[in-house]
Amino acid sequence: MAFKKDDTVIIEPREVFVGRKDAPVTLVEFGEYESEECAKVNEVVKQLLEEYEGRIRFQFRHFPLTLIHQRSLKASESAVAAAQEGKFWEMHNVLFQNRRNLGTTSLKLYSKEAGVKNKKFLDDLVNGMYGWQVQDDIKEGHNRGVKDLPAFFINEEPFTGKPTFANLSAAIESALKKTKTKATVRKTPVKQKQRA
Questions:
Q1: Which of 88, 113, 115, 121 could form a disulfide with 83 if both were Cys (CB 3.0 to 4.6 A apart)?
Q2: What's the pLDDT tens digit per position in 178-196?
Q3: On the CB side of 106, how many CA atoms lie within 13 Å of its CA?
Q4: Do the Cβ atoms of 15 and 59 come closer than 8 Å?
Q5: How do the domains of the chain map onto residue ranges?
Q6: Which residue, among 96, 90, 140, has the nearest Cα to 114 in the 3D structure?
Q7: Residue 156's Cα: distance from chain center in Å?
Q8: Quick one: angle between helices 104-113 and 72-83, nearest 10?
Q9: Residue 27 gets which letter from DSSP?
């Protein structure tokens, strides 16, 4: 007699955001946890979330450069694992703080620091339970043309330029103006022709 294995529902990285769900601007970053540039930009993103609170939502997508950073893949998987308990952002920040020490055993310690309670965390990580979710992010990144990290998209449009606070703010302001213009156009009533 065959037993039906319970299907585990996994929260995908594309479903994890910080900020208001209905914010007019969506900022998406493709990055990885061993990159110095991504770590620096993480601080910029924190400032942007504060500055534009309620007007932007942010999503981090995984794009580990495994040829350069061998531990970034498991680090990404550990962030997805933490997301299953609603602790993605806590783990995300802990990983950046410890980007030079991302061995699998260390990831288990960081998960506790982030507040993850899963007793099978290390087993899940070793067994690659969240590997497909990271691979899906990598595939989407390739489809969007991501080559260098960090890579940003603002309302699905690729951001070009250095991802500084000033440059990203200018791009967000521009996107906010575009969303206001679209909303105004939609609200303008269409005049009806009068019949004679």
A1: 88
A2: 988 766 555 545 454 445 4
A3: 14
A4: no
A5: 16-176
A6: 90
A7: 13
A8: 30
A9: E
| Among 15, 8, 6, residue whose Cα is nearest residue 83 | 15
What the block records as the tokens of 172 is 């967000």
Coil vs helix vs strand at 174: helix
Q: What is the pLDDT of residues 75-117, one digit of tens each?
A: 999 999 999 999 999 999 999 999 999 999 999 999 999 999 9
Query: What b/e readout covers 82-109, taking b as 16+ CB neighbours within 10 angstroms?
Result: bbbbebbbbbbbbbbebbeebeeebbbe
Token pair, residue 174, equals: 């521009």
Fold of 16-176: Glutaredoxin (3.40.30)
Q: Six-digit token pair at 113?
A: 């620091």
- Average pLDDT of span 6-14: 73
